[in-house]
Write a structure and sequence with these properties.
about 425 residues, alpha/beta, 6-stranded mixed sheet, 4-stranded mixed sheet, 16 strands, about 35% helix, globular, disordered N terminus
């Protein structure tokens, strides 16, 4: 849940029963679109700037005389149940935003329309693969990417300089070496930690698992099986444990949100943390952090144990047309606008990774953190298993969290990962 505004997990199983569908979603070739009535669009709070939406809706309405857009902002809290009910109704919203770990559940439930015949007009050739994957089932596309975000290392430039660190770490060994230099330079501060890394920051753990060639689960036919007990995934657990033990004093049984790591960083006793670029704003805000840090923060990609950028979990949102939409043709036209370079550039300017991978980093202006994030996403953005069952894994008693805490408290990696895989 570390992304909050771009991630939701866990969709109620009742959506399958409510829709009376299993497997594939509605085929758009049976289109019976009506040009009368409003086009209802549900996007989540904070997903798109007001001006972008205002301009896009005006452009859409000009191209579709007589049809207005009923744009409704939704809250992430409780959205799973609200979507379940709305998409099963006789008058569902035409377009909905879905967290990308949430999308496979609605796809499997038959809640979204098949978009295969619209891929060319929606610019699918330039979709960011990691974001696009969660909208696909059995080779068919039921949701488009919208935007994403991933983690980077956020650090104090002044502390790097004072410790004699002259370049960004490019490997795990470099990261630990830099951290130890900061520990030495700040030995007088008993509260200092070079890296604030909570024991249950499982999105970061994914980077190390993937960097070692491991996976959390693998698929054979239509069946998924836990894979964190493979030697490659176990190496990722070991990397995480080694980094934690060398540089962090964070709780072994907490994640990055409890307490909010940006707030911990803002107190001035932390050299680095691994987080989302907008956490810099939290850390430097007058109400939530320390404005004095504003010009002292830099970013670099999460380094792989083997050198170079590690793969990153690409959290984000998808967009879908409801299977029961009465305006599916017009809904596809609205999606075409949102996925156009014009509006994707505006999204990117706000500091998120756009759905399109061909825009270049100039769209981020002078936002260096966003450039770092986007480069990592393009180089190695990955997602969790695109399966309806994943939401329950993530939202429940997350076995990755439990395994990592167990390892940090002394349990053998092989034993902890065997239990997690099961």
């Amino acid at each position: 849940m570390g992304l909050q505004r771009v991630l939701t997990v866990g969709v109620a199983m009742s959506v399958v029963a409510a829709l009376g569908l299993t497997g594939c979603s509605s085929d758009s070739s049976d289109d019976t679109s009506s040009s009368s009535g409003p086009l209802t669009v549900w996007l989540m709070n904070g997903s798109a700037p007001d001006k972008l939406i205002s301009d896009l809706n005006a452009e859409f309405e000009q191209a579709h005389p007589g049809m207005k857009v009923d744009y409704q902002v939704q809250q992430w809290d409780g959205i799973q149940d609200k979507l379940t009910t709305a998409l099963a109704s006789n008058n569902p919203p035409d377009i909905v935003e879905l967290g990308n770990t949430q999308a496979p559940k609605f796809v499997a439930a038959g809640a979204l329309a098949n978009l295969d015949d619209k891929l060319a007009t929606l610019g699918a050739d330039h979709w960011l693969p990691g974001l696009a994957a969660t909208g696909v089932s059995d080779g068919k596309t039921f949701a488009t990417p919208f935007y994403g975000a991933n983690r980077v290392v956020i650090y104090r430039k002044d502390l790097f300089q004072a410790a004699g660190i002259t370049s960004d770490p490019k490997s795990m060994a470099d990261l630990i070496e830099a951290g130890k230099k900061m520990q030495t330079a700040n030995a007088a501060d008993k509260d200092f930690q070079a890296l604030y890394l909570p024991g249950q920051s499982w999105y970061t753990l994914l980077s190390f698992i993937w960097a070692e060639g491991g996976e959390v689960a693998t698929k054979s036919g239509k069946t998924w099986k836990g894979a964190v007990n493979t030697p490659e995934a176990q190496a990722g657990f070991t990397d995480y444990a080694n980094l934690y033990k060398a540089l962090s004093k964070a709780p072994a049984d907490a994640d990055e949100a409890n307490p909010q790591q940006a707030g911990v960083f803002a107190k001035g006793h932390v050299g680095m943390f691994i987080g989302l670029p907008w956490e810099i704003g939290t850390a430097t805000d007058a109400k939530t952090g320390n404005p004095a840090l504003k010009d002292k923060i830099g970013t670099f990609a999460i380094p792989s144990p083997k050198g170079g950028p590690a793969p990153v979990f690409l959290g984000g949102s998808n967009l879908g047309v409801s299977a029961g939409s009465k305006h599916s043709k017009q809904a596809a036209d609205w999606l075409k606008l949102m996925l156009s370079e014009k509006y994707q550039r505006q999204l990117a300017a706000g500091g998120v990774v756009p759905a399109l991978n061909n825009l270049g980093d100039s769209v981020y202006g002078d936002n260096t953190a966003a450039k770092t994030m986007a480069a990592a996403a393009t180089a190695g953005g990955k997602v969790t298993p695109a399966d309806k069952a994943w939401a329950a894994v993530e939202a429940g008693s997350n076995p990755l969290k439990d395994a990592m805490t167990s390892v940090l408290r002394g349990t053998d990696v092989a034993a902890a990962t065997k239990q997690a895989a099961e």
